[in-house]
C-alpha cells in the first residue's frame, strides 16, 4: 500500500519524526542515503540516543507502519514529502543547501499534481520560495494549486523530541493558496497548535529562535571572561543580577556549541543589516575553550607533559551528539599546549577510557559537558581520591555546585558544603 508520508533524511530530526508519524497511525516511508542507518531502522535499533525513540521504533516496527528506502525518488509514492536533510553553513557565511537541491533533483521527474513538499530543515530566509520557484522552473507547477510547498521548521531540542512534538506550536509558512492549510492538516496529527504564517516569517522565526539562544549564552560567557579580568566570581555576579529582579535574567556560562546554534546564525548573517554583530556573538562562544586553557595556565603554569582530564565530549549535557562540540576544540587546544589529554564521556559513540582512568593522576580536570554522571558528590569524591594532590578543577557549568570556574580539588568539597549551607 502507498505510504501517506515520506521523510527524506533519517537523522536526529527526521528519524524521530518518521517514527512519530508512524506511531500516530500513518504509513511512513523513511529515506536516507546511509545504508547503515537504514539497516538500523530495519532492525528496530535506534542509531543514536533520543529518549522514548527506541520504544516507539519497536512499536512501529511491530505494526509495519514504517518502511525505509535508499532511493529519494520513491518518496513520490507518498502524497506528503517531508524534507529533514542537513543544512550546514559554508565557511563563506552562506547556507549550504546542496543536500536539499540534490533531493529535489532526484524527485523532480517523479512529482505530480497533489504532492505536498514540507521543508522541515532549518533554512535561510528565501529558501522556501527558492524551492517553490525551482519546481515551477523545471516542471511548470503552479505552487499552491498543483503542488504544495511549505516550511514547517523543527524547533524541538535534542533529547526532548517525544515530549515537545505534541506541545510546541508548529509554525507553518505555505507558498500560495493552499500549501499552509495542507501542511497544517498533516502536522495537526501531533495535537500541538498550528500557527500559519508566510514562508519568510517561518524561516525567520526558526533561525531567530536559535539566534536568541546563542546570543543569550554568549552574554554569561563574556561575563565569565570579564569576571576573570576583574577578579570577580561569575556565579556571584549572576546571582546578584537575577535575585528577585523582575525583568528577565541572565543564563549561566558553559561551552556553547552544537550543530544548530553554531551555524543557524550564519543564515541571518548572509544578508545582515548589522554585519558582524552575530559573528561577534559566535566569536565569544567560540573563545570559551581558549579562555579555559589560558585560565588553567595562569594557575598551574605550563601544561607541557601535564595530565589534563576532559570530562565530556558531547556538545551539551545528557546527549550523545558530538557534532560541533566545543569539547573537541578544547582537546585540540590542550594538545597544542603539549598536555597529556585524557578524555572520558560515558554517552558518546567515540570510545573513551573509564572515568577513574581519565582522572587518575590528573593535574587538571575540565568539565566540558554537564552530563548527570559528572554532577554531584560521587564524581567529586573520585577526583579527590584519584587526581594529583592539588589538581585544578575547571567547572564552567557549575556541575559540582561550588560556584567556581577554577578551583583546587582540595577546596571544592568545602565550598560545596558552604553553598549548601547558604540560605
Ligand atoms: N539536530 C537537532 O537538534 C535539530 C533541531 C532543529 C532543527 N534541526 C535542523 O534539521 C535538519 C536536519 O538536522 P539533523 O540534525 O537531523 O541532521 P542529520 O545530519 O542528523 O541528518 C541528515 C540525514 O540526511 C541524510 N542525507 C543526507 N543527504 C541525503 C540525500 N541526498 N538523500 C537522502 N538522505 C540524505 C544523512 O545520511 C543523515 O542521516 C537541519 O536543517 C538542522 O539544522 C536540527
Secondary structure tally, helices? 16
Q: What overall form do the CA principal axes indicate?
A: elongated
Major β-sheet annotation: 8 strands, mixed
Low-confidence stretches: none
How many β strands by DSSP?
A: 15
- How far apart lie the N and C ends? 64 Å
**Fraction of residues in H or I helices:** 40-55%
What structural class is derived from the secondary structure elements? Answer: alpha/beta
- Provide the β-strand percentage band: 5-15%
Provide mean pLDDT, rounded. Answer: 96
Specify Rg, calculated over alpha carbons.
24 Å
Map the helices and strands.
Layout: E1 5-8, H1 14-23, E2 28-31, H2 35-42, H3 53-63, E3 66-69, E4 80-83, E5 89-90, E6 94-95, H4 98-108, E7 116-119, H5 127-139, E8 148-151, H6 161-164, E9 170-174, H7 179-187, E10 194-197, H8 199-230, H9 234-242, H10 261-269, H11 277-286, H12 288-300, E11 307-311, H13 326-336, E12 340-344, H14 355-359, E13 364-367, H15 377-386, E14 392-394, E15 406-408, H16 409-421
Parallel strand pairs: 1-2, 1-4, 2-3, 4-7, 7-8, 9-10, 11-12, 11-13, 13-14
Antiparallel strand pairs: 5-6, 8-9, 14-15
Structure description:
It is a single chain. With 423 residues, the protein is α/β, with parallel strands linked by helices. It has 16 helices and 15 strands. The strands form 3 sheets. The protein has an 8-stranded mixed β-sheet, sandwiched between helices. It has a 5-stranded mixed β-sheet with strand order 12-11-13-14-15. A two-stranded antiparallel sheet has the order 5-6. Helix 8 crosses helix 9, helix 8 crosses helix 11 and helix 10 runs antiparallel to helix 11. It is elongated and about 70 Å long. The relative contact order is 0.08. The mean pLDDT is 96. The structure holds nicotinamide-adenine-dinucleotide.
Amino acid at each position: 500500500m502507498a505510504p501517506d508520508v515520506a521523510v527524506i533524511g533519517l537523522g536526529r530530526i527526521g528519524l524521530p519524526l518518521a517514527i512519530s508519524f508512524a506511531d500516530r497511525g500513518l504509513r511512513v516511508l523513511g529515506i536516507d542515503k546511509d545504508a547503515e542507518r537504514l539497516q538500523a531502522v530495519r532492525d528496530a535499533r535506534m542509531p543514536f540516543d533520543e529518549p522514548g525513540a527506541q520504544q516507539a521504533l519497536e512499536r512501529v516496527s511491530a505494526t509495519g507502519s514504517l518502511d525505509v528506502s535508499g532511493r529519494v525518488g520513491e518518496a513520490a509514492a507518498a502524497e506528503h514529502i517531508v524534507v529533514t536533510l542537513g543544512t550546514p553553513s559554508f565557511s563563506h557565511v552562506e547556507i549550504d543547501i546542496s543536500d536539499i537541491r540534490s533531493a529535489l533533483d532526484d524527485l523532480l521527474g517523479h512529482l505530480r499534481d497533489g504532492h505536498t513538499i514540507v521543508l522541515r530543515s532549518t533554512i535561510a530566509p528565501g529558501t522556501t520560495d527558492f524551492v517553490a520557484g525551482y519546481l515551477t522552473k523545471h516542471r511548470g507547477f503552479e505552487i499552491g494549486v498543483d503542488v504544495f510547498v511549505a516550511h514547517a521548521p523543527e524547533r524541538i531540542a535534542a533529547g526532548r523530541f517525544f515530549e515537545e512534538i505534541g506541545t510546541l506550536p508548529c509554525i507553518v509558512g505555505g507558498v500560495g493558496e493552499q500549501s499552509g492549510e495542507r501542511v497544517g492538516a498533516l502536522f495537526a496529527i501531533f495535537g500541538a497548535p498550528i500557527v500559519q504564517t508566510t514562508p519568510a516569517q517561518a524561516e525567520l522565526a526558526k533561525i531567530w529562535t536559535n539566534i536568541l539562544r546563542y546570543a543569550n549564552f554568549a552574554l554569561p560567557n563574556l561575563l565569565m571572561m570579564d569576571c576573570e579580568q576583574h577578579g570577580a566570581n561569575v556565579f556571584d555576579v549572576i546571582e546578584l543580577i537575577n535575585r528577585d529582579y523582575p525583568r528577565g535574567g541572565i543564563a549561566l556560562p558553559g561551552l556553547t556549541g552544537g550543530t544548530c546554534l553554531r551555524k543557524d546564525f550564519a543564515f541571518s548573517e548572509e544578508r545582515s543589516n548589522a554585519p558582524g554583530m552575530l559573528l561577534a556573538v559566535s566569536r565569544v562562544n567560540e573563545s570559551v575553550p581558549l579562555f579555559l586553557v589560558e585560565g588553567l595556565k595562569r594557575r598551574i603554569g605550563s601544561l607541557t607533559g601535564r595530565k589534563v582530564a576532559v570530562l565530556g565530549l558531547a556538545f551539551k549535557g545528557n546527549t550523545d551528539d558530538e557534532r560541533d562540540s566545543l569539547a573537541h576544540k578544547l582537546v585540540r587546544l590542550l594538545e597544542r599546549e603539549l598536555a597529556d589529554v585524557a578524555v572520558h564521556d560515558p554517552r558518546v559513540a567515540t570510545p573513551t577510557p573509564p572515568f577513574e582512568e581519565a582522572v587518575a593522576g590528573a593535574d587538571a580536570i575540565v568539565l566540558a559537558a554537564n552530563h548527570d554522571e559528572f554532577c554531584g558528590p560521587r564524581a567529586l569524591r573520585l577526583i579527590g581520591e584519584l587526581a594529583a594532590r592539588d589538581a585544578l578543577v575547571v567547572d564552567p557549568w557549575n556541575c559540582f555546585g561550588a560556584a567556581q570556574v577554577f578551583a583546587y580539588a582540595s577546596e571544592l568539597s568545602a565550598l560545596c558544603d558552604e553553598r549548601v549551607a547558604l540560605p
